[in-house]
Design a protein that fits this description.
Layout lengths: L13 H11 L24 H11 L15 H12 L4 H4 L3 E6 L1 H16 L6 E5 L4 H8 L4 E5 L1 E2 L4 E2 L1 H10 L5 E5 L12 H13 L3 E6 L9 H4 L1 H8 L4 E6 L17 H9 L8 E6 L3 H18 L6 H10 L2 H31 L7 H5 L13
Parallel strand pairs: 2-3, 2-6, 6-7, 7-8
Antiparallel strand pairs: 1-9, 4-5, 8-9
The structure holds pyridoxal-5'-phosphate.
Family: Belongs to the class-I pyridoxal-phosphate-dependent aminotransferase family.
Subunit structure: Homodimer.
GO molecular function, one term: L-aspartate:2-oxoglutarate aminotransferase activity
Length: about 375
């Protein structure tokens, strides 16, 4: 008898399963709208020119070795990540009340934060996620034993934000709930709160002593402006909140590093061996706390948790990002690459909208251009 007998068969991941079915489809004009990865107008993945440059620099570094990184990752990488998210002039950074750990992309950052909360946040607290949200949110919190509920977000009638439902749920939630917030470019609706709405959200969360856990997977990728895309996070920090924010460099650096996780085609294996083999997933979990002593304690626990989870984070992707974030010239180039990607997405939305109007398509289509980022809820129904 094997104890494996009782292990149930898990259904395949919906999105990645779709990718596999897409690959198997022989229709020549097929388009994959499933997975959230940037494509050029030829439908191909795009290696950012600035990432190629950073790769060159790394390649030519005579001191490069393959030793372990520190447990919490490259210190200049986590520091630059906090600066990128909170702003170069952030008071929280000046007051040294920020803790951080390098993570395995955004997923790893959210996981580490959730794990921390499962140990140190008051027991029984529920994590609220938007309805709908990125499907992994629920799984990540559930995996560490935190119960998940949702707050209304999408209003099908306006194809926009259900702000009343959202605020109502925040009010009705038990005090001190964990609230997972998409910093920008909400997945999957493409609908973000306005500044005024964020302010109202922060008002209720302050009154209810909720804990904001930001998921920021699209900084600079939404509007093309790094500060504009992190406005929500900075607003909460300015108002004195203690927060967690998980950052992903998958989209804004094109470092998805996932080519071989989906069922690979020959082309992808080739690509992975000869070009993309060095891509690695990197992200960062940052905590803003009330003071330096607290930040130190939190930081020490990040290190302890990370040690038992992965020991040391992978180096390659973080080294590339570290080079770019800490070099003013490359940083400016990166900003230009971000404008290329976000600009193309905005342009595609604009073209689709104009075409729908030009063709006198029945219905209202302004949501296509009001939404931001690479996801769109079209309001179309399946047949
Ligand atoms: N959070 C959201 C909302 C996302 O859309 C994604 C990626 O699609 C992530 C987090 C994390 O992705 P990754 O782990 O690839 O950085």
């Amino acid at each position: 008898d094997s104890f494996f007998e009782q292990v149930p068969l898990a259904p395949p991941d919906v999105i990645f399963h779709l990718t596999a079915t897409y690959k198997a489809d022989t229709f020549p004009q097929k388009v994959n709208l499933g997975v959230g990865a940037y494509r050029t107008d030829k439908g191909k993945p795009w290696t950012l020119p600035v990432v190629k440059k950073a790769d060159e620099i790394l390649h030519n570094d005579p001191n490069l070795d393959h030793e372990y990184l520190p447990i919490k990752g490259i210190p200049t990488f986590t520091a630059a990540s906090a600066k990128l998210m909170l702003g170069a002039d952030s008071v929280a950074i000046k007051e040294r009340r920020v803790a951080g750990a390098q993570s395995i992309s955004g997923t790893g950052a959210i996981h580490l934060g959730a794990l921390f909360l499962s140990k140190y946040y008051p027991k029984g607290a529920v994590a609220f996620v938007s309805n709908p949200t990125w499907a992994n949110h629920k799984a990540i919190f559930n995996n560490v034993g935190i119960e998940v509920a949702d707050y209304p977000y999408w209003n099908p009638a306006t194809r926009g934000l259900d702000i009343d439902g959202f605020l109502g749920a925040l009010n009705a939630a038990p005090n001190g709930s964990i609230i997972v917030l998409h910093a920008c470019a909400h997945n999957p609706t493409g609908v973000d709160p306005s500044h005024e709405q964020w302010t109202a959200i922060a008002d209720v969360m302050q009154a209810k002593k909720h804990f904001p856990f930001f998921d920021c997977a699209y900084q600079g990728f939404a509007s093309g402006d790094l500060a504009a895309d992190s406005w929500s996070v900075r607003h909460f920090v300015d108002r004195g909140f203690e927060i967690f924010v998980g950052q992903s460099y998958a989209k804004n650096f094109g470092l998805y590093g996932m080519l071989l996780t989906a069922i690979p085609s020959m082309f992808e294996i080739w690509d992975a061996i000869f070009e993309d083999h060095k891509r690695e997933r990197c992200g960062c979990l940052t905590a803003v706390t009330r003071d330096t002593v607290t930040a130190k304690r939190v930081d020490s626990q990040f290190e302890k948790l990370q040690r038992s989870e992965i020991s040391n984070p992978p180096a390659y992707g973080a080294r590339l990002v570290n080079i770019v974030l800490n070099d003013p010239v490359l940083f400016a180039e990166w900003e230009s690459d971000l404008r290329t990607m976000s600009g193309r997405i905005i342009d595609m939305r604009d073209k689709l909208y104009k075409k729908l109007i030009e063709l006198d398509t029945p219905g209202q289509w302004n949501h296509i251009v009001d939404q931001i980022g690479m996801f769109s809820f079209t309001g179309l129904k399946g047949r």
